[in-house]
Amino acid sequence: MTATAFAALPVSSKVAVMRQHLIDPEVCIRCNTCEETCPHGGIVHNDDNYAVLFDVCTGCGKCLDPCPTGAIANWHDVSSAYSVDEQFSWAQLPAQQAGLAIDATNAARLVPSPIEPPVVAASEATEALMVKAAAPASASRPVVNAFKRNQPATATVVANVQLTAAASDTDVRHIVLRFADGVFPVLEGQSLGIVMPGTDDHGKRHAVRQYSIASPRSGEAGEPNTVALTVKRVPGGLCSNHLCDLPVGASIEVTGPFGATFLMPNDPAAHILMVCSGTGVAPFRGFIERRRQMAAESSSGKLLLFYGAQTPQAMPYASYLEELPAATVLRDLCYSRLADGPKTHVQHRIRASAAVLSALLCDDLTHFYVCGLKGMEQGVEEALAEVCATAGLDWLRIRDRMRSAGRYHVETY
Ligand SMILES: Cc1cc2nc3c(=O)[nH]c(=O)nc-3n(C[C@H](O)[C@H](O)[C@H](O)COP(=O)(O)OP(=O)(O)OC[C@H]3O[C@@H](n4cnc5c(N)ncnc54)[C@H](O)[C@@H]3O)c2cc1C
Ligand code: SF4
Ligand code: SF4
């Protein structure tokens, strides 16, 4: 709405309205990524919730893509802004206020930049933003946040198998959950939240923990209504130990699904370049399984996997990957703590494959994914910059082009 059109509204509609950026407390997993990302110090938290400072937020949108759950992508049209204390007190977002008209002057400042003013209804705005956050063009449309903390889905554990060698220091589990009646539709690359039972020492509910889905959309081993997770037991960690100790038959509450951009292209001609360490392999197992199912449709796209772990014994799915034919996935497995061999990280392997990679990165059919521990991205980026420089290419230009086309994705935790 332009200022002229606003002026022409009937008096009853002329409530000066602003658009306020808010965080959904039912979806937020309290990971702090947004607070770390915001260049303006626009996000704060207490023991309960994360909140956006209305007077500080410029609507730059920089916190949106890094948020792993989409909890941050909410805008409400308000006649007066919700305070931080109000946001801290919420168990869920308040309902959108109906019948408000946007004051174009305020909207221009407060609407995040991906959405052009004049503004649209907030729900449409959120939708528009999710599209602009650039999933692969051929990806299926995901369902997100269908189950929130106050109304989670219930699943039953149907398998819990140790993936790493018993003698290894690392305990990583392949855990399969079954939902009733197909209630939890997922796409490869999405994740879900696990609701820890009980409360902390102060009587507060535990934060939901997020886990990548390691199975394809059709379910684990073709079983409908199931998802697989790849869970590493973290020493002293609350949720990972709870999950790793769950017996078959146990019941568990689940939120999500999360993730609208780290998705697999459906295009069978797409080349998928995957770089990961440890449990970061989880979404890529889902990608590989999906591509195996699509093989009947003669996928011409290549799958390439660069995957690092400390030792072969500590690498989840090592034998599964080694048994796959190269026609399914070209994999480069490397180890950083071999007792009697070189200590190799994925960056080293990326540099060693410079010729193949520089050609692939110039191909508009190539989609690039990184998943694993925080901090991994930088080493991978530096290696790719070197690979490109050797071939006379500009990595930053290539990366930005891929990112805006929905072909560059990073998920680290
Ligand atoms: C997008 C995304 C995807 C993810 N995917 C996966 C996945 O596929 N697989 C996977 O295994 N994980 C995944 N994670 C990580 C996962 O969500 C959890 O963070 C992880 O399992 C640890 O949770 P926890 O409850 O076990 O540990 P927490 O209880 O949260 O503890 C975390 C750390 O703090 C330490 N700590 C806890 N309490 C104390 C204390 N009182 N004093 C000192 N130190 C303490 C713990 O020792 C541990 O090192 C993902 C995270 C994100 C954001
Ligand atoms: S889930 Fe999103 S909104 Fe919540 S703390 Fe993490 S980044 Fe912020
Ligand atoms: S939109 Fe920009 S200013 Fe506002 S909270 Fe997000 S990163 Fe901070």
What does this structure look like?
With 413 residues, the chain is α/β, with parallel strands linked by helices. The chain folds into three domains: 3-132, 2-Layer Sandwich (Alpha-Beta Plaits), CATH 3.30.70; 153-258, Beta Barrel (Elongation Factor Tu (Ef-tu), domain 3), CATH 2.40.30.10; 271-412, Nucleotide-binding domain of ferredoxin-NADP reductase (FNR) module (Rossmann fold), CATH 3.40.50.80. Helices cover 24% and strands 23% of the residues. The chain has helices at 3-7, 33-37, 84-89, 104-110, 122-132, 238-244, 282-294, 318-323, 346-352, 354-361, 376-390, 395-404; strands at residues 16-22, 43-45, 50-52, 74-78, 101-102, 153-162, 172-179, 191-195, 209-212, 226-232, 251-258, 271-277, 303-309, 330-335, 366-372, 408-412. The strands form four sheets. It has a six-stranded antiparallel β-sheet with strand order 9-8-11-6-7-10, covered by helices on one side. It has a five-stranded parallel β-sheet with strand order 14-13-12-15-16, with helices on both faces. It is globular, with a radius of gyration of 23 Å. The model is unreliable at 107-133 (pLDDT under 50).
